[in-house]
Amino acid sequence: MIVTRFAPSPTGFLHVGGARTALYSWAWARRSGGKFLLRIEDTDRARYREDAMRDILTSLRWLGLEWDEGPEVGGPNGPYVQSERNALYAEHAARLLAEGKAYRCFCTTERLDLLRKDQGADQTGYDRHCLGIAPAEAERRAASGEPCVLRFKMPTEGSTTF
Predict the structure, then answer these.
(1) Measured between alpha carbons, how far is 10 from 32 in angstroms, rounded to an integer?
(2) How many of the other CB atoms lie within 10 Å of CB of 92?
(3) 25 φ, ψ to 5°?
(4) Partners of 149 in beta bridges
(5) Strands in the chain per DSSP E
(6) What is the per-residue pLDDT across 63-116, written as a single tens digit (0 to 9) for each?
(7) DSSP β-bridge partners for residue 3
(8) Is 123 exposed, middle or buried (0-12, 13-18, 19+ CB in 10 A)?
(9) How do residues 35-76 score in pLDDT, each as one tens digit?
């Protein structure tokens, strides 16, 4: 069965490009006898807008695009609002850290901006600056509230594809 999804971010109102993407996903699911899922990507909490969330749902319904699973409908693969899945993400993040497949990065936005500027257009990417922080030290810093993100511990040789 074909399952498609539309995953807008409620940081602004639904625009024509988003509506087109939703329409294509909905039409493909309907044509193939599949399902159309709506998942709200609300993890950018600094830019999240409640009125944009309401507008997305209202606009999709105005267009006649009813979803088979998603907010206000439910379904077996919920929750369909990303911020409601934080406990699941935390569980998997802890596993990646425990297995040594990820590490905490404490680099500031300013440091990362400077790194991008210094690298130029030809070379981009994180320089693994925080990879050498001992896991116990990283855990202590994170527990004290120091802002951090998780980074995958990618191999330095070969090719990594997804």
Answers:
(1) 28
(2) 11
(3) -65, -45
(4) 105
(5) 3-6, 35-38, 102-105, 149-152
(6) 999 999 999 999 999 999 999 999 999 999 999 999 999 999 999 999 988 888
(7) 35
(8) exposed
(9) 999 999 998 889 999 999 999 999 999 999 999 999 999 999
In whole angstroms, what is the distance from residue 71 CA to residue 79 CA? 8
- Any idea what the Cα angle at residue 148 is, between residues 144 and 154, rounded to 5°? 135
At position 3, the amino acid (one-letter code) is V
Contact between 97 and 150 under an 8 Å Cβ cutoff? The reply is yes
d(CA 22, CA 38) in angstroms, rounded, equals 9
How many Å apart are CA 95 and CA 145, to the nearest integer?
Answer: 20
Q: What distance in Å separates the CA atoms of residue 141 and residue 104, rounded to the nearest whole number?
A: 10
- Rounded Cα distance between 73 and 26, Å, is 15
The position carrying tokens 């991008």 is: 116
- Residue 103's DSSP bridge partners are 151
pTM for the full predicted model = 0.73
